[in-house]
Amino acid sequence: MPARYSRTVPDLETIRRRLASHDPLEIQRVDQRQAAVALILRERAELEVLLIERARMDGDPWSGHMAFPGGRVDPQDADAKAAALRETREEVGVDLMQAEELGRLDDLEGNHGRLPPRIVVSAFVYLAAAPLVLDTNHEVEDAFWVPLRFFTDTGRHIEYQYPPSSESMRFPGILVGDPDRHVVWGLTYRFLEHFLRLAGEPIEDRWHLVGWKD
User: Fold this and answer.
1) Which of 47, 95, 101, 157 has the fewest CB atoms lying closer than 10 Å?
2) Inside any domain, residue 120
3) 53 pLDDT exceeds 90?
4) 102-118 confidence digits (pLDDT tens)
């Protein structure tokens, strides 16, 4: 029987239930760096997800990328979740201590497929309390809310090439704004892919279409 892929959007109660029952994979690698991000939902006329466009900075491997708020786990952080809370507060001015924690996704290792992993990233899912005022710092070029339905809309599923050169590699991507700037791909795409699968509305596995397959 062929796999079922969805163009519909999971509702909040389904997300709550499925994340509450999920036992996340936690990767413990003492020889690797760790980072943590927050996948933040808010409920308006429809469910939305907070994304940031990272500032363009030399030496930042995620310079200019679309991402969730987050960053490296520092020595003063009690754990990965504490790092996600701190980084979210620093980058977009949102205090997630006032938000509903919905669950945790499986940890992922940076560099999908062919390249050696360099960092372990944890992702924590929250439902934001209203109202929210975003106050970005120097690490963030822009921050905005994206309808959850954008991620299941196959009309927004594109092939993304990185880096933009004659020797660029191809990745699955999702267009959420300006096609020159606002394409979700890489680690953020993988977390969204995992989140939607957990929520019961998986998007099509497109990695083999661009030559990336574990």
Assistant:
1) 95
2) yes
3) yes
4) 999 999 998 644 455 57
**Residue 33 identity:** R
Q: Domain tally for the chain?
A: 1
C-alpha 142/C-alpha 135 separation (Å) is: 10
Q: Are 27 and 109 in contact (CB under 8 A)?
A: yes
* Position 39 in a domain: yes
* Beta bridge partners of residue 49, listed in sequence order: 41, 146
**Tokens 């880096």 sit on residue:** 163
pTM, two decimals, is 0.91
| Pairing outcome for strands 70-72 and 119-127 | unpaired
3-class secondary structure, 21:
coil
Tokens of 213: 């397959």
Which structural domain, as residue segments, surrounds residue 59?
A: 13-20+33-150+186-203
The answer to whether 55 touches 138, Cβ cutoff 8 Å, is yes
Q: How many residues does the chain have?
A: 214
> Which CATH number do you get for residue 82?
3.90.79.10
Using an 8 Å Cβ cutoff, are 41 and 137 in contact? no
- β-strands 33-43, 119-127 pairing: parallel
